[in-house]
């Protein structure tokens, strides 16, 4: 059986002279096995030593090229990778915040939990109304009726106006039914909006017909609005906002989320891409995502 050949002392010295030339041979220390009193200089086998060079400034230089430990330590600290202990070579844990000093992070003093009384109706609908309350519903009703009148002024023969009475419009009860239907559509998957009202024995889902007629839903969903189109700032103006159409609803949700519940100290915030191929100003194309077209949330 072949055994791996070990290096002799002369071969080791020749390799060290080629790789790490030093100016002062007296500063280089080797293993005690490399004594000059050895009689078998040619065939003696010794472990490969690691040169340790002492510089004039008192710093210890290790490894190839003689890089300073202190220099490496300062560079690691600047990059947030931790530093090397000069005494025993242990590494300090890296700073997870990069260059941010942990002492500058304020101490968590809040008390996490609910900031408002729990609803008496402790059901999913009861908790839902903590965020989508009457203020939001009234805004939906106001802007939806306003938009239907604007459409009638510009397009009096619009198809869905046949199922709409601009004098009465919609109300809060019907708006809540609309939201319920939209949430149910996210659970029951069908190819088209009209197919939810199909009476075919295979495709039928009685829930939708019981809540609202099909044409009434399509008309209400067409006119459903959150903000006044006639007051929208034009692109390029200082007040232009890509979220203008949903800004009141978005701002209200932000206020409710911050006032209903106070978060804990440790939080994990992650982003996600919602698939979307329609026309929207902030749609993105990210080639490495599973859903390449969508809106990053």
TrEMBL record:
Record-annotated PiggyBac transposable element-derived protein domain positions? 123-297
Under the heading InterPro entries, the entry gives: PGBD (IPR029526)
Entry's Pfam families?
Answer: DDE_Tnp_1_7 (PF13843)
**Where are stretches of biased composition, namely Basic and acidic residues?**
7-27
Q: Where is the composition biased (Basic residues)?
A: 69-80
Protein name per the record: PiggyBac transposable element-derived protein domain-containing protein
The annotated region (Disordered) lies at 1-97
Name its species.
Littorina saxatilis
């Amino acid at each position: 059986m072949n055994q791996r050949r070990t290096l002799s002392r002369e071969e080791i010295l020749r390799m060290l002279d080629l790789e790490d030339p030093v100016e002062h041979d007296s500063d280089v220390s080797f293993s005690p096995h490399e004594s000059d009193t050895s009689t078998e200089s040619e065939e003696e086998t010794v472990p490969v030593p690691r040169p340790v060079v002492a510089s004039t400034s008192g710093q210890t230089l290790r490894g190839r090229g003689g890089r300073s430990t202190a220099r490496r330590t300062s560079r690691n600290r600047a990059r947030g990778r931790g530093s090397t202990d000069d005494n025993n070579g242990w590494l300090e844990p890296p700073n997870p915040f990069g260059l941010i000093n942990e002492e500058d992070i304020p101490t968590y003093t809040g008390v996490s939990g609910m900031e408002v009384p729990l609803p008496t109706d402790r059901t999913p609908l009861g908790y839902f109304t903590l965020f989508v309350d009457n203020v939001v519903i009234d805004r939906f009703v106001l802007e939806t009726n306003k938009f239907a009148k604007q459409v009638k002024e510009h397009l009096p023969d619009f198809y869905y106006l046949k199922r709409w009475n601009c004098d009465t419009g919609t109300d809060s009860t019907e708006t809540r039914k609309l939201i319920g239907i939209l949430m149910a559509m996210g659970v029951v998957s069908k190819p088209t909006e009209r197919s939810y009202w199909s009476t075919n024995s295979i495709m039928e889902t009685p829930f939708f017909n019981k809540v609202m007629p099909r044409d009434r839903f399509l008309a209400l969903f067409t006119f459903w609005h959150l903000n006044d189109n006639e007051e929208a700032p034009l692109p390029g103006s200082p007040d232009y906002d890509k979220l203008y159409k949903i800004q009141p609803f978005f701002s209200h949700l932000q206020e409710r989320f911050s006032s209903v519940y106070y978060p804990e100290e440790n939080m994990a915030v992650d982003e996600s891409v919602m698939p979307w191929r329609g026309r929207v100003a902030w749609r993105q194309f990210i080639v490495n995502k599973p859903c390449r077209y969508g809106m990053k949330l």
